[in-house]
Amino acid sequence: MKLKVLSLLVCTFGLMFATSAFAQDVTVSGTVVDAADGEPLPGVTVMLQGTQRGTATGQDGTYEIDAPSDGTLTLVM
């Protein structure tokens, strides 16, 4: 009985570690531009909706942000 419980615990922890290994972030990048003239906009805050994760665009309007790789990504400015 103790061997079965120990085996179950080892399998459970193994699955937990395997799941966390696959749930890694991806880097999303882009450029924020003015809709009227297409000029890059520096200093714009880009955030992942529903989180505290964000960044600001550089002088050339570009940004990079790490986002969950689960496919549910919404950026807000």
From TrEMBL:
<dbReference type="Pfam" id="PF13715">
    <property type="entry name" value="CarbopepD_reg_2"/>
</dbReference>
<dbReference type="InterPro" id="IPR008969">
    <property type="entry name" value="CarboxyPept-like_regulatory"/>
</dbReference>
<protein>
    <recommendedName>
        <fullName>TonB-dependent receptor</fullName>
    </recommendedName>
</protein>
<keyword id="KW-0732">Signal</keyword>
<feature type="signal peptide">
    <location>
        <begin position="1"/>
        <end position="23"/>
    </location>
</feature>
